[in-house]
Design brief:
3-stranded antiparallel beta sheet; 444 residues
Length: 444
């Protein structure tokens, strides 16, 4: 026998002898793996890492919260994408779905604002994108730069998630921004504060860079809702099947029926005659009800924190009181009021800074400067009723102006409506004059 053959034979013999040892090591490795696995998570959906737990908040750091939001919003995550995207889009609709309402007293000021808003699509898609960034990051940095070709100032969002900028403010006044810096290719760059507006929607004055919002506080609930949904799907896939059961008197009868089923001689729907008792066995619903209860609890937490009524999250059956359901938009109005106010102030500051920069760059003259109002209206049935019963009578009494009333109306451009009304009045006066002239001609 050759040396190679002898060595192969020895290796084969050693491998046989080591089988018990290998099995022991395999069991030990399996036990160590199980020790790291979260035992309270079902096997069907267990993708937990060592750093994640099922009974605590998994997103305590701001950068973790923002990363989860972007991953979930784009669908690049296992759990939470479906509910988070719905929450973000609903909040954006509540905040700015009716669009901007801007009105200035001076015609030159209004003309500049209309041109600026139209060029930057701030009454359309770009406004929605800015609001989305605000929801995902809890803030938005809007930068102004000159467009020499069109002789106008361009407004663009500067995402924290992409650029990781840092904001430094006056320690005694957190609204007084001193500097904005970011790094690119290990080089530090600064954004001039007179060319940018920092809209801070979340966080506290303790740290103006960490702007966690209400939605950031329920990210784990969103993830758990999604996990429970997939647990439900997995359990249904594995166990939600009707199983035929034959109770026989003798073992021979059971063996005969099993052989017939294995041979494909019987399936559900076919007739049966024999001495065995027949029934269809289904799994109990206890586990499924527990999962549904967890999903409901997560949705209630999300609704309570974000201010979105729970029936708008896709579960109308949880809203049993019809009168309450109809009045919930008033709660939405209250919970989004702060957010809309912050955006109104931010956009007003943006327009003012764009005016100064437009003048400095020679695009406009000083005549565009003037006072103006910015509104992001949220219109409900109760608000429309209030306009008809309160605001219009106040305008008739001279307590408020027509401009104030127009700013409260949805789906109109106040300045454009003013122009149209003035045009119609002039046309009516011209027709009246023509009619009077025609009458005089007839009389003569």
């Amino acid at each position: 026998m050759s040396l190679q053959a002898i060595n192969n034979q020895k290796g084969f013999i050693n491998s046989i002898r080591n089988i018990p040892e290998k099995n022991r090591l395999k069991k030990k490795i399996h036990a160590m793996t199980e020790a790291e696995r979260d035992v309270t998570t079902t096997y069907a959906t267990n993708t937990q890492t060592v750093n994640e737990v099922v009974d605590k908040n998994n997103y305590k750091k701001y950068h973790e919260q923002v990363k989860f939001c972007y991953d979930a919003y784009s669908g690049d995550i296992d759990y939470g994408s479906e509910i988070l995207r719905g929450v973000v889009q609903t909040k954006v609709a509540f905040t700015g779905g009716e669009g901007l309402s801007v009105f200035a007293q001076k015609k030159s000021t209004q003309n500049y604002i209309d041109k600026f808003l139209e060029y930057n699509k701030l009454n359309g898609s770009r406004l929605i994108k800015m609001l989305e960034i605000g929801e995902l990051e809890g803030k938005n940095l809007i930068c102004l730069e000159k467009d020499v070709k069109n002789e106008i100032m361009k407004a663009r969002s500067f995402s924290w998630y992409t650029n990781k900028y840092k904001v430094a403010c006056n320690g005694l006044d957190t609204d007084d921004i001193k500097s904005i810096v970011y790094k690119r290719k290990d080089e530090e760059h600064e954004i001039k504060t007179d060319t940018a507006v920092y809209v801070r929607l979340g966080g506290t004055d303790y740290d103006v860079d960490h702007t966690s919002t209400d939605m950031h506080c329920v990210l784990t609930d969103m993830e758990n809702f999604s996990r429970a949904k997939y647990d439900l799907r997995k359990n249904n896939h594995l166990f939600a099947k009707l199983t035929p059961f034959f109770k026989t008197v003798t073992q021979e009868g059971a063996k005969s029926i099993n052989n017939s089923i294995s041979a494909g001689e019987w399936e559900i729907g076919q007739g049966y005659a024999g001495t065995a008792d027949f029934s269809l066995v289904s799994p109990g619903s206890g586990a499924l009800e527990a999962l549904k209860g967890e999903m409901e609890l997560a949705l209630k937490n999300i609704a309570a924190t974000t201010g979105i009524p729970i029936h708008w999250l896709g579960w109308p059956e949880l809203m049993s009181n019809r009168a309450t359901a109809e009045n919930l938009l008033e709660v939405v109005n209250a919970t989004t009021k702060k957010r809309r106010l912050l955006w109104e102030e931010g956009i007003k500051e943006l327009i003012k800074k764009s005016m100064i920069l437009a003048i400095d760059n020679g695009f406009e003259d000083n005549n565009i400067l003037g006072e103006f109002q910015v509104k992001l209206p949220l219109i409900s049935l109760a608000n429309l009723k209030m306009i008809a019963e309160i605001w219009i009578p106040l305008m008739d009494l001279g307590v408020i102006s027509m401009s104030t009333l127009r700013n409260k109306l949805p789906e109109i451009n106040p300045s454009e409506e003013k122009k149209l009304v003035e045009k119609e009045k002039q046309e009516n006066m011209d027709r009246m004059k023509e009619g009077m002239i025609d009458e005089n001609v007839d009389d003569s």
